[in-house]
Amino acid sequence: MFFGRDGSPSRPLDVLRLAAVSAKPPCRLATEMIKPLLFLSFVASSLFAAQESVVSTTEVARVSRLPGWASALERVPAEQKAALQKLIEGMPERDKQSLSADYLLRNTALAFEAKQKAPWGPTIPDDIFLNYVLPYSAIGEEVDDWRADFRSRFLPVVEAIQKSGDAAHKINTVLWKMLDVVYSPKRDKPDQSPYHSMRIKMASCTGLSILLIDACRSVGIPARFVGCLWVNKPGNHSWVEVWQDGQWYHLGAFDGEGLNKAWFTREAANNIPNHPQFAIFAAAWLPTEANLWRSMTISRPTPRPVVDVTQRYLDLCGKTNACHVEVIVCDAAGKRLVREAVLTVGGKQIASGKTHDDTRDLNSHFSFVMPEGTVAQIGVKNGDGTPGKVREVTFKKGKTQSILFKEAN
After folding, report:
1. CATH code of the domain containing 381
2. How many CB atoms lie within 10 A of CB 65?
């Protein structure tokens, strides 16, 4: 071991340099004796510099060979490392192989920034942040680099809003015109990534929900994907839940209704908790205590952790003897039309409303609600506002009743 003048460890070349510099030659012979020392110092310096260069180059090469997630863990700021580790734990294997370190670091930094700057940020529990703000995908769809883009678009929309659920509702009322995306079953596939939907300007309930979730997460709103098969009608539906003041509220993407007021709320109350087919499941990022897994995508089947949230919808609606009758008006080609529907009981008009057209979800229909056993007349007006056809109906419990009116050309 070599030590310097201050007693600290020193490299051999430092000793050579010290000897060369400290010597004070009294004569030419002494000078000649020092020349070899200077030469050895030069050689040693060159060798050590080359060794340092090799080490540096080797380290760069090693890091460059690491998968993106492993490289990201070596570079992430200390205060974000634990969260990034959880993000990586929940990543599908294909994403571990394909996503770059820069992408993961950027996603993590922006998620932290969104939480820190949101008025509701301090109230978000760690597990909610890790599952429903930090993740870059909702259900395993194709990955887009949306977070910075969406934050720049939607932060101005919610800057004056203090509650996360209210901010989510506001985004849901403006997002679709801002991005020029509409509901359509003619979309390419159900589980489109956000930029895919924006590119083709359409999506069905799954793609619309993914868009709304990403927009919410970009400004620090915890949001998750929810879906089910219907019990009393054919088909399925997907929607969004957002976290506010310690509990979850639901929104129908593109529908525009307020928190917990979506058209499907009553239909969801018919689903069955703990049922493998007819429960309502919310997608998570990390495994839950129940250890439930389901694939919620079609184009990229990926089993994801889920939470059974069916009971929440049963509790929202409670026990009631209310019955629903849906009203649908179509033209000769089967295209849904917006028409005024009128409910009459005992010759007295009780209620009225507008039927839904094909810009709404295929399962979204205007409906009247009355107590079980009510006998009523439901009529629809023609396109010019004149009275049209009338049907008599008895409100019954059980499977949702539907009345279809067809208009001739």
Report:
1. 2.60.40.10
2. 9
In whole angstroms, what is the distance from residue 261 CA to residue 255 CA? Answer: 10
Query: Same structural domain for residues 34 and 99?
Result: no
Same domain, 23 and 93: no
- Give every CB contact of residue 396 below 8 A, 6+ residues apart in sequence: 323, 372, 373
Q: How far is 297 from 370, CA to CA, in rounded Å?
A: 37
Nearest in space to 302 (alpha carbons), one of 191, 399, 171 = 191
Residue whose C-alpha is closest to residue 218's, from 119, 160, 128, 149 = 149
Is position 290 within any domain?
Answer: yes
Residue 36: pLDDT over 90: no
Rounded to 5 degrees, φ, ψ at 288 are -105, 175
DSSP H or E run through 387: strand 387-394
Q: Tell me the Cα Rg of the chain.
A: 33
Total-model pTM: 0.75
Shared domain check, 237 and 95: yes
C-alpha 178/C-alpha 240 separation (Å) is: 19
Query: Is 266 within a domain?
Result: yes
Tokens representing residue 124 in the block: 């978000």
CA 157 to chain centre: 18
Identify the band that residue 317 occupies on the pLDDT scale cut at 50, 70 and 90: confident
Gap between the Cα atoms of 262 and 265, Å rounded: 6
What residues make up the domain containing 86? 77-317
